[in-house]
Amino acid sequence: TDTLVISQILQMGQKLVARTSLTNWAEGKLYLTVLADGMYAFAGIDTPLAYYQSPTRGTAATNRSAYVALKNGSLDVFTSFQETEVPDYHIKFPVDPFGLVFARLDWDGHMRLYQWGIDSWVNSDIFNITDPCDYPLACGEYGICSHGQCSCPDVAIGQSGLFELVDAREVNRGCSLKSSLSCGSAGKTRLLAVPNITYFNFVYNWTTNEDHCKLSCMDDCSCRASFFQYEDTSSGFCFLSSDIFSMISVSTENYSSNFSSLAFVKIQESAHKPLSYKDKRAIVLVAGSLSFVTSV
Fold first, then answer.
1. How many other C-beta atoms can be found within 10 angstroms of the C-beta atom of residue 76?
2. Which residues contact 39 (CB under 8 A, 6 or more apart)?
3. How far is CA 196 from the centre of its chain?
């Protein structure tokens, strides 16, 4: 289920799983759960990454089990670190005289409270996430979010023809590869370098150099993109992603002069449409070598 109703409790280890999309009710890749130190929302199946944590902390565990309770007038988070039956985190909202209230983890990752208005349901966000780009599906899969605006990776670096919008009328639904990835065609697989890109969660697999980070993604059939953030001029932090969510465009002026963060998105070169010279200059040709061609 994706919904909590009045008087319902979500126990530690239980999940609310969001549906795939607004029209597809199958279970998606986002879920809400309760851990010992609070309420968490995760994105991903193979390597779940947290995109929300309730502002609760603790160090001394008790025999109490953590849980979340929806009441008429509040959503209460109880952790395993509280000795008394007092919530560690309390979200207050108006009491509904008829109890027509429920909370749902929606397909876009927003946890919303729904209350019946005069003649329709009125909703409000429960998570205190202020930047819309911090949601893992702010711009759908493969989408790049910049100040709440969405684009596909190729368009973001001045190219076209590699991705297409899932829905041209709703650009926040994400992008899809025009040529599907195939592990059996390693010679046609490339990495598209997209500069000044980060992810909604800074969880990196290891410290290495850029070339090794790229090669590791190319050698891993399940890897759909690698993210690299420089720690100094020669090494940095690498993360390989098998679930691809929205990426976030970052403005370098907000960081130190040596900051650099890139995404390398795996694409499949079409056998029917060879890339132009201009397109090839923006692609990292790592199949069979470690050479790096930058975009100009």
1. 20
2. 32, 33, 52, 53, 54, 56, 68, 77, 89
3. 17
Q: Report the relative pairing of strands 144-146 and 149-151 from DSSP bridges.
A: antiparallel
Burial 163-181 (b: 16+ CB within 10 A, else e): bebbeeeebbbbbebebee
- The reported pTM is 0.82
> H-type helices in the chain, by residue range?
153-156, 210-219, 277-281
CA distance 165 to 69: 39
Closest to 102 measured CA to CA, from 121, 88, 129, 76? 121
Q: Which neighbouring-strand residues pair with 19?
A: 27
Q: Tell me if 267 sits within 8 A of 179, measured CB to CB.
A: yes
**How far apart, in whole angstroms, are the C-alpha atoms of residue 177 and residue 288?**
23
Q: If you write DSSP's letter for every residue of 274-293 in order, what string do you get? A: PPPHHHHHTEE--TTS----
Quote the CA–CA distance of 184 and 175 in Å, as a whole number.
23
Tokens of 155: 């368009």
Distances (CA, A) of 232 to 71, 208, 249: 50, 11, 20
Strand 247-249 relative to strand 144-146, pairing: parallel
Residue 10 burial by CB count (10 A; 0-12/13-18/19+): exposed, middle or buried? buried
Residues 136, 43 contacting (CB under 8 angstroms): yes
pLDDT digits (tens, 9 = 90+) for 198-221: 998 867 767 889 999 999 999 998
Instruction: Fill in the DSSP letter of residue 270.
Output: -
For 138, residues 6+ apart whose C-beta sits below 8 A from its C-beta are: 108, 109, 132, 145, 148, 150, 172, 246
Query: Model confidence over 248-260: pLDDT tens digits?
Result: 998 766 555 556 8
Give the count of beta carbons closer than 10 Å to the beta carbon of residue 212. Answer: 15
